[in-house]
Design a protein that fits this description.
Blueprint (H helix, E strand, L loop, with lengths): L2 H4 L7 H9 L14 H4 L4 H4 L3 H10 L2 H5 L12 H5 L6 H14 L6 H13 L8 E2 L5 E2 L14 H11 L2
Antiparallel strand pairs: 1-2
Bound molecules: iron/sulfur cluster (2 copies).
The site of one iron/sulfur cluster has 16 residues, from α7 and α8.
Length: about 170
């Protein structure tokens, strides 16, 4: 079922629409003229059926509540292609991020993978641990071998600031 199908029983919410607009800077979904250049290049379209032009359409129509509680806003891979391709100042990426922020503010269900990423940042300062990678010649490389400095793991001060930013 597409996002548009999901909205058939929904009602527009002007207040939430205004809230989303207040979270955006220099981006206005009302500038979107539905050319679909964003969707034609969207990294998440094929696997996750994310259609960024539909997100803009629904925000313009006031269906923000439904978007905020939908899994679809978490499907965005943050590749920024839609922002680059948009001929207007209507970047779906920025609108999706605003929707996610609103979802967090409203205690909506956040995918497990994001919660794991937050836990990793608290523990090691990154979303994943440094890895050993293999070259085409099958040589293993890690930070030390590449002459990169040791990772400085977060201290209590970092954790306290991070939690404050998260509102915890
Ligand atoms: S957001 Fe931009 S690229 Fe996407 S449909 Fe609207 S105007 Fe076109
Ligand atoms: S930033 Fe998100 S919505 Fe935009 S093209 Fe990339 S995956 Fe699609």
């Amino acid at each position: 079922m597409s996002l548009i199908d999901l909205m058939t029983m929904a009602k527009p919410n002007k207040e939430l629409q205004m809230k989303i607009l207040s979270l955006l800077w220099n981006v206005d979904p009302a500038d979107c003229f539905q050319c679909m250049r964003c969707t034609s290049g969207c990294t998440s379209l094929k696997l996750l059926e994310l259609k960024p032009h539909e997100v803009n359409l629904l925000v313009n129509a006031g269906f923000v509540e439904e978007l905020v509680s939908s899994d679809i806003i978490w499907a965005c891979a943050s590749c920024l292609k839609c922002r680059e391709r948009c001929p207007q100042k209507a970047s779906p990426y920025n609108i999706i991020i605003a929707l996610r922020n609103l979802a967090v503010e409203r205690d909506a269900k956040i995918p497990e993978v994001y919660m794991k990423a937050v836990a990793q940042i608290l523990e090691i300062g990154f979303t994943q641990k440094p890895q050993t990678v293999t070259s085409r010649e099958m040589q293993p490389f890690n930070r030390e071998k590449l002459g990169l400095p040791q990772i400085r793991y977060p201290d209590d001060k970092f954790r306290a600031i991070f939690m404050k930013i998260l509102g915890g």
